[in-house]
Design brief:
By secondary structure, this protein is of the alpha+beta class. The protein contains 4 helices and 8 strands; from the N terminus they run αββββααββββα. It has an 8-stranded antiparallel beta sheet with strand order 1-2-3-4-6-7-8-5. The longest helix has 22 residues. The N and C termini lie far apart (48 Å).
């Protein structure tokens, strides 16, 4: 009922305030029942996946009028924006900021290919979670699995292939070793890996 929900929200808010005070804005590694969880921001979660898979990163998204068509259903192209937002926040959580990446290394990421499957519609005012998992990492490319969920329901899934290119000529460019090492920490266990 409404009173229980409000009490739960109040309890969660107190926990988040306490956590913010203890960590003072720093990244912090915690252990959960399912494995490690790095809390970056209370609104962005790095969720431990099933034991045999890579870690997953998620951001919450609220559906607004601007995201919907006349029927109140999320317009299909808006999911690409949701996926992009999740990818950018994931990279930011790894201290990889696009503008700094270009300035420091001369490299940027572009979407090379995208395969998307629409399973169920999201609607106006839905609270969604947009997540990603790194499936494969090559010298120039990486493959991500992304999804949009509403609670336990999967609404949209996508496989996104990113390529590193030189900012000057937009030609394929090898990932700098330090950057590749940060990304590699997100790979699944060896049997689950595939090369892009």
């Amino acid at each position: 009922d409404r009173a229980t929900v409000l009490l739960d929200l109040d309890r969660d808010a107190r926990r988040l305030a306490s956590f913010r005070h203890r960590t003072a804005g720093r990244h912090r590694e915690r252990r959960t029942v399912d494995g490690p969880m790095t809390v970056i921001d209370p609104h962005m979660r790095n969720l431990a996946g099933p034991p045999d898979t890579a870690r997953s990163f998620a951001v919450p998204v609220r559906v607004y009028f601007q995201d919907t068509d006349a029927g109140g259903v999320v317009y299909h192209a808006r999911y690409l924006d949701f996926f992009e937002r999740c990818r950018m926040e994931w990279l930011r959580s790894l201290d990889i900021v696009s503008t700094t990446l270009v300035a420091d290394t001369g490299v940027l990421f572009v979407v090379r290919s995208l395969d998307i499957e629409y399973l169920k519609p999201a609607r106006l005012d839905d609270a969604l979670d947009v997540d990603l998992r790194l499936e494969a990492l090559g010298g120039v490319q990486l493959m991500l699995r992304q999804s949009v969920r509403r609670g336990d329901e999967t609404l949209v899934t996508a496989r996104v292939q990113l390529a590193a290119v030189s900012a000057a000529g937009m030609k394929p460019s090898r990932l700098p070793p330090e950057l590749r090492a940060r990304l590699a920490a997100w790979l699944p266990s060896e049997p689950d890996r595939e090369r892009p």
